[in-house]
Amino acid sequence: MADCIFCKIINKEIPSTIVYEDETVMAFRDIKPVAPVHVLIVPKKHIPSVEALDRDNAGVLADIHLAAKKIAEKEGLSGKGFRLINNCGKDAGQTVFHLHYHLIGGRELGEKLI
Ligand code: 5GP
Ligand code: ZN
Question: 0.85 exceeded by the pTM?
Fold first, then answer.
């Protein structure tokens, strides 16, 4: 999508530190990391949020999870633990409306949910 910042990152019009890429998924470091490892995993196809998922496009969620597993291994988090977070919509504080999952780890993460 034309004025989507993550589409621009995917198209390499905006620089980012890419840590993983395959046919359907890209992952790059968050510009404002909250932990030693903070990677954003996104579908290459523009999907605004979880609310825009349907039977036809939800297959990419499996790809995102498999990418998360590989990235966690590469970042040295295997066996230590990590968190995979999605913010959907206004009340959850979603700021970029291109579906993304935060992979966070590298320290003890504290409270589970708030
Ligand atoms: P949200 O709040 O929508 O769940 O997460 C959006 C995330 O994207 C934030 O953690 C923010 O730091 C990150 N972000 C926003 N703009 C950029 C950017 O241009 N490059 C990178 N690498 N991350 C960004
Ligand atoms: Zn997009």
Answer: yes
